[in-house]
């Protein structure tokens, strides 16, 4: 199915929701694409539209240069949203996407669109607390594939194919490089409520670390721990979407 047009390469919609009241904007993980969220929009309640961010250098934007800074992703996403979004919106980021969503929220809060109604930060420490992932981009291809497989991002052996590696690994490496170089400075709390989500068995970040997002909001936060590894939103999608719908409805 061809996604409905959005007028910008930065955003993809997989279902038309012309009467939706709120748009949920989704930010993929390192090496990820908008297609990661393809199945989400069909499962959301009708009052919510979905727009997935498509980063440069992958999928429908494969011929474009890969970003050189994580902040470049936030700059591009914020500009696209300001030009193509109306009405209330929320931001959901998974892993690296949580950092990009946070930076995007800072930009939008200072502009004409105003702040989101809520930020969802999944499977990521808050800005400035990146831990042991800072050298991943320096690994050789086999080492990088091992990291991806450990996190549960792809089935073991899938990236043994050289052609697939040549498509996937450049974006993964560039994103990890940008995460390592990201220097947010002093925390800037958002005047936005935050929902932090963590996988109970995530090998890269513990739930207590994900809970650190509480320092980045003046409006309160909630931590949700779900069964699974780093990619728990894939296997626990229904539970994640129930949490999203609950919190957007003001039930948290």
Can you characterise this structure?
- The protein is α/β, with parallel strands linked by helices and 252 residues long.
- It has a single domain (11-132, 186-248), classed as Alpha/Beta hydrolase fold, catalytic domain (Rossmann fold), CATH 3.40.50.
- 33% of the residues lie in helices and 14% in strands.
- It is built from eight helices and seven strands.
- Strands 1-3-2-4-5-6-7 form a seven-stranded mixed β-sheet, sandwiched between helices.
- Helix 2 crosses helix 3 (96-109).
- The longest helix has 20 residues, at 162-181.
- The protein is globular, with a radius of gyration of 17 Å.
- The mean pLDDT is 92.
What helical percentage do the residues reach? Answer: 25-40%
Q: Kindly give the count of domains.
A: 1
Q: Strand-and-helix sequence, N→C?
A: EEHEHEHEHHEHEHH
Q: What is the count of DSSP helices, taking H or I runs of 4+ residues? A: 8
Output the CATH homologous superfamily. Answer: Alpha/Beta hydrolase fold, catalytic domain
Question: What coarse outline follows from CA principal-axis ratios?
Answer: globular
Strand percentage: 5-15%
Keywords: Hydrolase
Family: Belongs to the thioesterase family.
GO molecular function, one term: hydrolase activity
Protein name: Surfactin synthase thioesterase subunit
């Amino acid at each position: 199915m061809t996604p409905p047009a959005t007028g910008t390469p930065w955003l993809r919609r997989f279902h038309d929701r012309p009467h939706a009241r709120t748009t949920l904007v989704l930010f993929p993980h390192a090496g990820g694409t908008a297609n990661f969220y393809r199945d989400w929009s069909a499962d959301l309640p009708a009052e919510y539209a979905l727009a997935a961010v498509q980063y440069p250098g992958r999928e429908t934007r494969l011929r474009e240069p890969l970003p050189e800074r994580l902040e470049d992703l936030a700059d591009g996403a914020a500009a696209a949203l300001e030009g193509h979004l109306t009405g209330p919106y929320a931001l959901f980021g998974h892993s690296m996407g949580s950092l990009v969503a946070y930076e995007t929220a800072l930009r939008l809060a200072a502009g004409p669109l105003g702040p989101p109604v809520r930020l969802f930060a999944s499977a990521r420490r808050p800005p400035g607390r990146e831990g042991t992932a800072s050298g991943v981009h320096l690994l050789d291809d086999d080492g990088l594939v091992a990291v991806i497989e450990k996190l549960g991002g792809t089935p073991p052996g899938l990236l043994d194919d050289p052609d697939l590696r040549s498509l996937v690994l450049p974006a993964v490496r560039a994103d990890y490089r940008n995460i390592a170089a990201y220097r947010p400075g002093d925390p800037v709390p958002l005047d936005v409520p935050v929902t932090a989500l963590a996988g109970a068995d995530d090998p890269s970040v513990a739930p207590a670390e994900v809970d650190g997002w509480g320092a980045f909001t003046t409006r309160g936060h909630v931590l949700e721990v779900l069964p699974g590894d780093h990619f728990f939103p894939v296997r626990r999608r229904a539970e994640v979407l129930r949490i999203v719908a609950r919190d957007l409805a003001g039930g948290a």
